[in-house]
Amino acid sequence: MKASSKKSASSPANRAKDEVGNAGELQQQAGGTHPVMTTQQGIAISDNQNSLRATPRGPTLLEDFVLREKITHFDHERIPERIVHARGTGAHGYFELTQSLSKYTTARILTEKNVQTPVFCRISTVAGGSGSVDTPRDVRGFAVKFYTQEGNWDLVGNNIPVFFIQDAMKFPDLIHAVKMEPDRGFPQAASAHDTFWDFISLMPESMHMVMWAMSDRAIPRSLRMIEGFGIHSFRLVNKDGESTFVKFHWRPKIGLQSTVWDEAVKLAGADPDFHRRDFFEAIQNGTFPEWELGVQLFTQEQADTFAFDHLDSTKLIPEELVPLTIIGRMVLNRWPDNFFAETEQVAFCPANIVPGIDFSDDPLLQGRLFSYLDTQLSRLGGSNFAQIPVNAPKCPFQNTQRDGHMQMQPQKGRTAYEPQSLDPNATRASIKTGFHSAAVQTDGAKSRIRSESFADHYSQARMFYRSQSEVEQAHLASALVFELSKVETEHVRLAVISQLRTVDESLAKRVGDGLGLKSLPAAVKPVVPVQDMALSPALRLIDRMKDTLEGRCIGILVADGSNNESINAMKSALDKAGAAVKLLAQKRGVTLKDGSYVTVDGQLAGTPSIVFDGVVSILPMAEAEKLAHEAAAVDWFRDAFGHLKAIAACKGTHKILEAAGIKPDAGVVAPEDIKAFIKLAKTRQWEREPTLRTLA
Ligand code: HDE
């Protein structure tokens, strides 16, 4: 990587400069111009290592403004983390429209083709704190800020197209239930505990999202391999004021892929930053994460024919019913200069929309329109956070809002009010070019009544489960067994099973069996009959993996005396197929068969096979025999096999496989069989799974 190679290239002279003058360079990068380190007031600092003392061993003096300023600033470095989605990874990039929606909207971002609009995208987990791991079972947030020429448009979505609840009123309860339990302060970043499942068991509308959250979607292999969904129905409004409903979808260019559960758990220990590192490395290496933007467009008349309410966020619109049209692509090609300034301080808000796009009456969306700005006022310390560079529009902006904490703009002029007559150049609203809300008719009495059209909580949950492939159904059922096995309170476990019976009897039975129940509790009686909707194969994941090694990483285990020709042949074929390749050995350096000395990318014990998508070993017999007695090597293969990965194992490696108790199957080939290995590495060996573990 660039950063480390830069460091190792540092000469003694540079190092000396690092110690004295480099801070000055950093200051310059940060925007300053002073050649040496200064205080915030610009006073050059003579010594940044020793505080001012009365005598060399005497008390420190209060007058030491350099020390005081440094410590004070440090004391205030932290800001509140996000109440949800605290852990995130962000990057800059651009969006480019490939198909115009000018028939439906006036928004230039959706009508002007081949224009590159800058974006900032942040992908996050939901439940864990900002220091939590990357791979828990969780929903992933997928937020994109488009810096359009008509102002900022934020599409703040998730990687799952539906949500747990129908009404914003329930959001604080949902989040309190999933977060660590307040009396004990754990578990962190996990839904497998009593309070979450207690809430879920009493919230039938959550069943559809529960199916998704228990599916492999919630344990992605990489942030580059997830979809994104705007979830709610939004409106597009055209020049005649006519509106069309729209749902937004992001489709990853390199396809969808997930981990297996045991792998996700082990990744949390092996590399808590697994997703962030993968994203960072992809961008540094120029293999930029990319998504297509798709839309489902439908009219009110079409919506009236749906068997569900399109304003209900616990429902999706099957692609078989309203097909997806791809209209553009997003490429993320620049890692932020500073994590805190950009990824941490970025403030997304679903209320940030541009003329030509509008909200729908989805009650979940309506609540969100309030929450984001509200929470950001305290998270970012006041009402001027839109002036932080990552949040500021890249088009001109002006208004009569003034003052407030951290005001950065020395706004000119005498008049900060409207109407006014003193300043002919002062800013004014424009009925012609300004934002207009869609002229939606409303009529009726105010009430706290939920529409009857929101009453069916089970049909789509059933549709989702039944649409999954056999392997995915088994994973989903096993995930439920795992989660519920962590729930200590029996009546909560049983209440969830009662819900599951109404979703799908066979699923409830599998979960009940997995938990060792002798009999199942009675099924919940739904308020409205559950419908057997047409299945939607588009909802599967495994079937939709792409036939590619792009974005995947292969580990090659080598040792002293390994055949360099075999290594090179495998490496170049993998390179050609688009995979990243890393060499591993017991030590960081090895001497290959031809006498060449190679510094490898990782040490075996510190680089478990969990971080790879397929593994190869090219070892001389004697070295392989030695490794058969090394736990790290045995675990390396046991995990790769257990996580259903392709293995290219040389003859000697079979000794290690034996020590790992592995009976080679069709997913284990010789390293000479490069073509076969590449084909196998593009997927997981699903047929191996039933031979390894009992799935529910
Ligand atoms: Fe959010 N959500 N949310 N949410 N949400 C926040 O805003 C909220 C919901 C989503 O990377 C918060 O700045 C309410 C659905 C993402 O910075 C907060 C409701 C979807 C992110 C908030 C929802 C999301 C957030 C916390 C129910 C998918 C991270 C920090 C009505 C469509 C954005 C912040 C980032 C963040 C409120 C439900 C997506 C508290 C009240 C549904 C991706 O304002």
TrEMBL record:
Q: What residues make up the catalytic site? A: 85, 158
Question: What is an example of a GO molecular function annotated in this UniProt entry?
Answer: metal ion binding
Indicate, by first and last residue, each region the UniProt record lists as having compositional bias (Polar residues).
25-34
What are the required cofactors?
heme
Q: Name the source's superkingdom.
A: Bacteria
Spell out the reaction equation it catalyses.
2 H2O2 = O2 + 2 H2O
Q: Biased-composition ranges for Low complexity?
A: 1-14
Which residues does the record give as heme binding sites? Answer: 82, 122, 171, 368, 372, 379
Which InterPro entries does its entry note? Answer: Catalase (IPR018028), Catalase_AS (IPR024708), Catalase_clade2 (IPR024712), Catalase_clade2_helical (IPR043156), Catalase_core (IPR011614), Catalase_haem_BS (IPR002226), Catalase_immune_responsive (IPR010582), Catalase_large_C (IPR041399)
- Which segments carry the region annotation Disordered? 1-34
Is the DNA damage keyword given for this protein?
A: no
- Keyword rRNA processing found: no
Listed under GO biological process in this entry are:
hydrogen peroxide catabolic process; response to oxidative stress
User: What keywords appear on the UniProt entry?
Assistant: Heme, Hydrogen peroxide, Iron, Metal-binding, Oxidoreductase, Peroxidase
Q: What is its EC number?
A: 1.11.1.6
Provide a GO CC annotation, any one. Answer: cytosol
Pfam families on file: Catalase (PF00199), Catalase-rel (PF06628), Catalase_C (PF18011)
Q: Which SMART domains match?
A: Catalase
All copies of domain Catalase core, residue ranges: 38-426
The entry's function note states: Decomposes hydrogen peroxide into water and oxygen; serves to protect cells from the toxic effects of hydrogen peroxide.
Family (UniProt):
Belongs to the catalase family. HPII subfamily.
List the protein's name.
Answer: Catalase
User: Gene encoding this polypeptide?
Assistant: katE
